[in-house]
Structure formats: structure tokens, C-alpha cells
Amino acid sequence: MSTLSEQNNDYTVRPVTPNPTVGVVINSCYGGFQLPNVTMRRYLLLSGIDYIEEEDGCFYTWTEFGKEQVCIDTEDLKFRSNPNLVRAVSETIKKPEDNTHASKIIIVQIEKGVKYRIREYDGFESIEIFDERKWAIA
Q1: Residue 12 has pLDDT above 80, yes or no
Q2: How far apart are CA 60 and CA 1, in angstroms?
Q3: Which residue has the higher pLDDT, 138 or 3?
Q4: Which of 35, 54, 84, 97 could cross-link to 46 by cystine, CB 3.0-4.6 Å?
Q5: How many CA atoms lie within 13 A of 20 on its CB side?
Q6: pLDDT digits (tens, 9 = 90+) for 84-136
Q7: How many CA atoms within 13 Å lie on the side-chain side of 60?
Q8: Contact 93, 39 (CB under 8 A)
Q9: How many other β-carbons are positioned within 10 Å of the β-carbon of residue 127?
Q10: How far is CA 1 from the centre of its chain?
Q11: How far apart are CA 27 and CA 137, in angstroms?
């Protein structure tokens, strides 16, 4: 996309720089948000979190209190847009079979700085962008 610059009668064509975007990870099917273990391993590695994986498929870390399960709040919007998570998903989920049986994890790019939330119905998620022109105050 290009634009004409009319400043100082300069009519040269200049490319329009797109606004930067941020990746947000959502589930795009009915079922629920669930990361495959390979994606979780990659996320923990990128985040610098030392872990062990047990036979039950759960991830644990060692703390001063002993072995504790790695708990991540998947409803947290900061987690869903975490650059390490976005990178882990992009590196490990390349085709439908890479997902779990109950999820289809995708990355949605949204413009940096906009207000958004994740809408969910029966596990199927979508991004809702706040637009002041479409919202009213009672």
C-alpha cells in the first residue's frame, strides 16, 4: 500500500508503514483451550523455566518447598499474548494433527495497543476488539 505525500508540494509515492501487531493465541474449535505437550515444553524452555515431565504428562518444577506442578492461568490475557507462547505455538503447531484432540490452537494478529478480549462459547474462542463507535454508555 502506498500514499502520496502532499507536504511542500512533494507528490512522491511513499509506502505506508503498517501498524505493528501482537500475536494472541486462541482455540478455534469447540472443545477448549489446551496446549499440546510439545508446545508446553517449548514455551517453558523459551521462558527459562526448568521443569521435569512425569509419565502422567504433567510438568513440574522444583521450588524451595519441593516439587510443584507448573500451573499456568490460560485465561490470563497476558499469557495468551506472551511472545514466548506465540513463538512456541508458531514453531510447534504447523498442521491440524499437531493440536490436541480437543483444541485447534491458532495465532491471531491484532494491532498493538488496541483493547480486546477473548470471547468463548463452548470452548470456541474469538477476539473481540473494543471499538468506541460501536459501544454505548447507559
Answers
A1: no
A2: 48
A3: 138
A4: 84
A5: 3
A6: 999 999 999 999 899 999 999 999 999 998 899 999 999 999 999 987 777 66
A7: 12
A8: yes
A9: 15
A10: 27
A11: 31
